[in-house]
Amino acid sequence: MKKIGCLHAHYSNIEYIQKAIASNDLELVHFVDPGLMSRIASDENFDLTKAQNKVNEQIEWIANTNIDAILITCTNYIAILNEEQLKTSVPIIKIDEPFIHHVCNITEPQMLLFTNPATVEGTMKRLNEFATTHAKPINIDVQVIENTFELIMQGKKEQYVNEVSNYIKGLLVSDPNKTISVAQLSMVETAEKVEREMGVQIGNPLKTLLTYLG
Q1: The CATH fold of domain 97-213
Q2: Any bridge partners for residue 32, and if so which?
Q3: pTM of this prediction?
């Protein structure tokens, strides 16, 4: 049985990953550290180098727990990670890479939704770098659904899902043909709920990860 160590920035992500990819042939071991993102946001003296060192320490710690691969589910962790300085040969799976490929293969105008403003810069930097490197013409309207991410951080999951769901439905009512993706793992359940209720397709990073893992 293969074992994957999963690094999350919030406990809520465990449920999504566990339901989606755990199997009889795959064991998941979850590691959670919500403190790093909080430290970056609140401590102006906590610079990029310190953040990179912290993420690398986490990755190396997980790598030494007898696992076969590491899955990073936080886009900010991925953006901060400095792989050149890593002292491990354990394969690293970045949840946003298959998603970025998917988004960059869409040529028509599309909307990319976030609830956490702190993830926008890192995600879009990686997405634009990929688009430029692979000559992918993209037309993306980025929108942050304000005042919702704190709900998930407070454990108010049902309220979070309802508010994000209502926002997405509002977009689709105004334009049923709008191409929409959600950028965060915490938004996956909501996206799937809207898909079922409105008969639409909404891109999300878990869907593209499952395709990638085959």
Answers
A1: Rossmann fold (3.40.50)
A2: 8
A3: 0.87
